[in-house]
Structures are given as structure tokens and as C-alpha cells.
Design a protein that fits this description.
With 291 residues, this protein is mainly β. It has three helices and 17 strands. The protein has three domains: 67 residues, no CATH class; 57 residues, no CATH class; 149 residues, Alpha-Beta Complex (Cathepsin B, Chain A), CATH 3.90.70.
Length: 291
């Protein structure tokens, strides 16, 4: 059995050991230096670092990192002001000079695009990936600039959502017989289509409490699924982006997201000051075969 050597007053962390227990005291927590540089209590800020054990000292990397008080990780991402290259450093200074070049602090979070995917890092942990099946240029609106609907099929949300789905390389079927109304089956179908790079047309029930419009289980509107975000913490999809033809402005039409909830996919439109809540009630099948 390993026995702490209490004759050693200070450890490699620079903190004095408690004379009775041999543990290092950091102000917020005690640490057992003999046990993998491991804290003896849960990190009070554990919720900020869900991908790291709440008992880990320096995110299990004590050679590279330091933790002076047992609290928050002081590591940030830095971007080179000239080249745009990004590095993760053990610092929270506003700027750093690395090999003669200046880098500016861009915070704890950093995202980068690789093909159609965007990866999100918190500290040095990749926490999620968002997979896109539609691009901003694929957006179609049913509205005029003055807020009135366009004429003919161009003013129809079902038609415009189907046009957006077609931009991903498939065709959304007509006919209510091609609706999937079971929540789990519908989400599984969306996942299968995104795996193949395809968008999906979905029907939503709308709620706007300010206008006394409440969920009634009936389809009020159609939108097109644009992306899926998968959490690397639990390995499951956590949200789906969608393009909403109910606004003329692309910046609002493409900036929408729905979350997986016990009731199904629930989201909120970014237009109309975000006052419209959406609940997916049907997923429309595409012509392509499921792989």
C-alpha cells in the first residue's frame, strides 16, 4: 500500500500538503497526489465540463496544464491575427505571442467547418458535430418583402419546403399516405435521410400564446430539415435545424432549431421575434429508398 510521505511539505503542484492527511489543499478541494493526481471531491464547476471526470486534476493532463485553486480551467482558444490559424493554450490572457506571432483570445469554445460538418470544441474537447444537408443558398420563401404571401405555388409552405428538400438531391413525396406520424419512427427516418445527405419535409403544429394560438395536434405549416447536431458526450442527436419558408428574410428563415424532447421534436421560429413554437407532428417520406 502506498503511504504518503508527510516529510515532503510541497508537491509538484506547488501546494503545501496537509500535515495530518498528506493530501494537497487547493482552497476549493483536496487532492490525493498518490492516486493519479485525483481530486477527493466533485468539481464544483463540473457542469461546465461534462466531458471531463469531476474528479480529474487538470483534465487528466498535469504535465501540460496547471490548476492553482482547484476551480475553473484557465485554457482558451487563440487565433493568429494574420494567418487565422487557431491553437488551444493553457492561458486566459487577451493576447499571446507564439513564435513571434500575435494571437488573440477567442474564448473557451471554438468551431470549425470540415466539408458539410461543423465541429464544436469546448476547451480541448470536441463536444458536438452539426451535419448540414442544406446550404443558405437552398432557402426558399413563401413571403413577399411586405409580409404578404407570394402568389400561386410560390406562396405555399408545402411547395416551398419541398423545393428546399429537392436541393439536397431527393424528392419529397406528395400524399398524406406518405406521412410518418409516430414520433420515434419519424426521428429514425430523419436520421436515415441525413445519413444519406438528404433533407426531409416535416409538418408542424404551431403555438403563439400572444395570439392565443395553442397546440391542437393539427398540422399548420411545413418546413424543411436542414441539419442534425450530435452530442459527443452521449453519442445521440440533440437537435435538428430547419429552414422555415414563412419569412422573407433568409437570416431568419435558416436560423431555426428543434430539440429532441419527450413530446417529440419541438422548436421555435427565429422570425416574429421568436414567438412561434413548433411541434413536429408528421414526417413526409422521400422517393429515395432507405439504405
Amino acid at each position: 500500500m502506498l503511504v504518503p510521505n508527510n516529510d515532503i511539505t510541497f508537491s509538484f503542484t506547488g501546494k503545501e500538503r496537509d500535515s495530518e492527511t498528506g493530501y494537497g489543499y487547493f482552497g476549493a478541494r483536496y487532492m490525493d497526489h498518490e492516486l493519479m493526481a485525483m481530486w477527493l471531491s466533485v468539481d464544483p464547476l463540473a457542469d461546465k465540463y461534462p466531458s471531463i471526470s469531476p474528479y480529474a486534476y487538470c483534465a487528466w493532463n498535469p504535465v501540460k496544464l496547471v490548476d492553482p485553486d482547484g476551480m475553473e480551467i484557465c485554457d482558451d482558444w487563440y487565433r493568429n491575427r494574420v494567418t487565422g490559424s487557431v491553437v488551444w493554450m493553457n492561458s486566459n490572457e487577451r493576447t499571446l505571442v507564439i513564435e513571434g506571432e500575435e494571437y488573440e483570445n477567442i474564448g473557451e469554445d471554438y468551431s470549425y467547418r470540415a466539408g458539410n460538418n461543423i465541429y464544436l470544441y469546448h476547451q480541448n474537447q470536441c463536444v458536438s458535430v452539426t451535419e448540414y444537408v442544406l446550404s443558405p443558398n437552398d432557402f426558399r420563401t413563401q413571403m413577399n418583402p411586405d409580409g404578404t404571401k407570394r402568389g400561386g405555388d410560390n406562396g405555399n409552405c408545402f411547395n416551398q419546403s419541398g423545393t428546399m428538400v429537392a436541393q439536397s438531391g431527393t424528392q419529397s413525396l406528395n400524399g398524406t399516405g406518405n406521412n410518418i406520424t409516430d414520433i420515434k419512427e419519424g426521428i429514425d427516418y430523419i436520421n436515415n435521410q441525413i445519413d444519406q445527405g438528404f433533407s426531409v419535409r416535416v409538418q408542424v403544429d404551431r403555438e403563439n400564446k400572444e395570439n392565443k394560438m395553442f397546440f391542437d395536434g393539427k398540422g399548420d405549416h411545413w418546413v424543411a430539415i436542414s441539419s442534425r447536431t450530435i452530442s459527443f458526450i452521449d453519442g445521440f442527436p440533440v437537435s435538428y435545424g430547419f429552414y422555415d419558408p414563412a419569412t422573407y428574410f433568409p437570416e431568419y428563415g435558416i436560423s431555426n432549431s428543434s430539440q429532441v424532447t419527450p413530446k417529440g421534436l419541438m422548436g421555435r421560429s427565429s422570425y416574429n421575434e421568436g414567438k412561434n413554437n413548433y411541434l413536429v407532428i408528421a414526417v413526409r417520406k422521400n422517393v429515395n429508398n432507405i439504405k
